[in-house]
């Protein structure tokens, strides 16, 4: 019924008056031409689609043949490997010698690394001391120190992992050999935390680029943490797949949470600065709030110079605002509620900026 109705509607478009009856022959020719054009287009489209389908089927057939051929080759390789163990005379000895040679090469590399480790540590200690002399400087050696320390730490983790079957005396000797490296790693972590806690002062001294280095190191260490955690979970859940992971880095790596350390350093610095200011004002909350120009200056500096140095998902400006707000709330406590003064950290960015500039 719907098709009949649509056909009747189409005919009514052509036959609106009595004079249109005389034009029926021309209308038929016109409709026939349009029909022929549409049919030609449909045939052409169907042919193109059929050709594409045919090509797809041919490629699928070729792919299936290739997969079958690869499977057969893999079977042949596996058969040859099995045959070599029985057909080649002394294959087991050859395999054993090859394994001993690989282990010997690794041992030589390890010994060379152990011999050169102290020289490298001395070099890194010198650069770290150089940066520590200027705590509000540009930290020019920070990334270089981190790069080489990462290599040394990986070497330590791999060595300790390989020595897990050694005697207790040998393991104790090896751990003593890495004591100086452990001390350097701890010193670097402390230096990194100090830089993270001094980001505002460093940016005010004209070195906001240090924030980029802080964020980059945290990102790299975060990826290593994720990899180590993932491998540990795989090994715990699937023992067969665990045998494929030969590295001991994931097993011996200490999860560092550098990003969390940066946030903690920001909170500690906010707490310390507010506490020092409160002591300076002798606990007078009214005088304390009236002398918070530095507070707004810090927030404006963070927004203008530091926020762009961190990835957006860090939300570094909000982290500073929360740190200052929480520290001031804890510090003032009941006196803040009695005075009924609004917390300065809740001030919007625009009002903070205008207060600083006035």
Topology overview:
Elements: H1 2-14, H2 24-87, H3 91-133, H4 142-162, H5 168-177, H6 179-197, H7 199-204, H8 209-237, H9 239-242, H10 249-252, H11 258-280, H12 285-290, H13 293-306, H14 316-332, H15 334-339, H16 349-357
Could you walk me through the main structural features you see in this protein, from its secondary elements to its overall organization?
The chain has 358 residues and is mostly helical. The chain has 3 domains: 29-66; 108-256, no CATH class; 263-357, no CATH class. The chain is 80% helix and 0% strand. It has 16 helices and no strands. The chain has helices spanning 2-14, 24-87, 91-133, 142-162, 168-177, 179-197, 199-204, 209-237, 239-242, 249-252, 258-280, 285-290, 293-306, 316-332, 334-339, 349-357. Helix 11 (258-280) packs across helix 14 (316-332). The radius of gyration is 37 Å and the shape is flat. The N and C termini lie far apart (80 Å). Residues 340-352 and 354-358 have low confidence and may be disordered.
Helical fraction equals over 70%
Count of domain modules? 3
Strand content is under 5%
**Average pLDDT figure:** 79
Give the distance, in angstroms, between the N- and C-terminal Cα atoms. Answer: 80 Å
In this structure, how is the largest beta sheet organized? none
By DSSP (H or I, 4+ residues per run), the number of helices equals 16
Shape: flat
Helix and strand sequence? HHHHHHHHHHHHHHHH
Give me the secondary-structure category: mainly alpha
CA radius of gyration: 37 Å
Q: Report the strand count.
A: 0
Low-confidence spans? 340-352, 354-358
